[in-house]
Design brief:
alpha+beta, six-stranded mixed β-sheet, 2 domains, two-stranded antiparallel ribbon
Length: 170
């Protein structure tokens, strides 16, 4: 999928790559990321002067999320740029925070899949809305207020708070 040939990268100094990740790829399992169509990944990997591998990626696709107010599906154009740095596993200390990902010693290929997954999870907004004027769901009857109105009164107290209200009156 997203693998770099490290001997070729060492020989050439830089390497371009392009991959298409399908929406049902196991890479997305458990991440809450859903896509409509393939996710296109293009990038350039190069070896820095100090020996780290610097990978620049551009990711494009159509993400599907749920509106946080009314739960309607929301399509969102995904267009993100990432830079990921890999270094010698000995340079990245245990327990230390570092932006450098460890690179094992005698590796012939570098799999970028996990880095792509992590960067996308961090870059995407979990709390999308279908629109600024979204009325959401009624907290009492659950009707979608964008599609129909309900007769629920917002002044009706929530019975789950009765015990606390009783303490407040004491």
């Amino acid at each position: 999928m997203l693998k770099l040939d490290l001997p070729r990268l060492e020989r050439d100094g830089s390497l371009s790559f392009e991959a298409s990740v399908p929406p049902d790829d196991p890479l997305w399992e458990g991440s809450d990321l859903r896509f409509e169509g393939d996710v296109l990944v293009r990038g350039q990997a190069s070896v820095s002067g100090s020996g780290e591998i610097v990978v620049r990626m551009r990711v494009e696709g159509l993400r599907i999320a749920e509106c946080r107010r009314c739960l309607a599906p929301v399509r969102e154009l995904l267009d993100e740029d990432f830079i990921v740095v890999y270094g010698d596993a000995g340079e990245v200390g245990d327990g230390e925070e570092s932006d450098i990902r460890p690179l094992a010693g005698d590796v012939l290929t570098l799999d970028l899949s996990e880095a792509l997954r992590e960067e996308l999870i961090l870059a995407t907004d979990r709390w999308v809305e279908c629109g600024a004027d979204c009325a959401g769901l009624c907290p009492i009857c659950g009707v979608n207020r964008n599609e129909e109105t309900c007769d629920c009164s917002p002044d009706e107290p929530d019975p789950r708070w009765d015990a606390l209200r009783a303490l407040q009156k004491e």
